[in-house]
Amino acid sequence: MASNVNPTVRRRRLGQELRRLRELKGMTAEEVAERLLVSQSKISRLENGRRSISQRDVRDLCGVYEVADQRIVDSLMQMAKDSRQQGWWHAFGDIPYSVYIGLETDAESLRTYEPQIITGLLQTRSYAEALIQGALPETSVADIEKRVQVRIRRQERVTAETNPLRLWVVLDEAALHRVVGSRQVMREQLEHVAEMSQLPHITVQVLPFDVGAHPGINGQYSILEFADAADSSVVYLEGVTSDLYLEKAQDVQKYTVMYEHLRAQALNVDQSRQLIEDMAKAYAR
């Protein structure tokens, strides 16, 4: 990116402000849609930041909401302009989870639960290549390489010398046993996780098999938090054909409580690192 503007975050903030203006006006999304002769779904997508917002959209909405202060209109118009810039990930072409990458790039902290694999931000190149090839068997070599490059670029957030992403990972023990690539790949991968877990801003815990049923039994999820108070936390659920982003306070709170239970049931940091190191040694035999 040529600047520090994150288009994904700009769209979120702009959408939140447009929703606030609509609610101050006492209008429903349906009423706004009728006034502008557009679909209600368009208004919803503009407000949740999942759709690019043009300056014309902002102008029309400000007109409906009767925003009298031109400085506010100009500020929102500039946000709309910024939101249409491209993030670094756009250089890699069509990335299915580009919205998530934009959020992750701007997040202050990330808590994630992984039931089957090593989380992307801690993957080695060899592990990532084997994982993507296995998960997407019909993907071309070129596309696999593109996805790997994006994954490696994302990892710069956790290795940055200044203001690195605070990362807390709960790994199901299954992720340590699932052989991705080869035993050699797994040995190197687990050694890497053990090494990264010693950084002060990275915490890794393993959820052992013997805990039985647990709050994360339904699958992987992540909670992203941001430094700016204007940016609400987001729960991210990855899907095969589409992803889900939850931003309502009650939804975020529910997943946060679930995560606290997972952390409590998992091995502590030292026990987790010891288990990971032991598994790495086992793969070397």
TrEMBL record:
InterPro entries: Cro/C1-type_HTH, DUF5753, Lambda_DNA-bd_dom_sf
SMART domains found in the cross-reference section: HTH_XRE (SM00530)
GO molecular function: DNA binding
PROSITE patterns reported in the protein's UniProt record: HTH_CROC1
Domain of life: Bacteria
HTH cro/C1-type domain: residues covered: 18-71
Protein name: Helix-turn-helix domain-containing protein
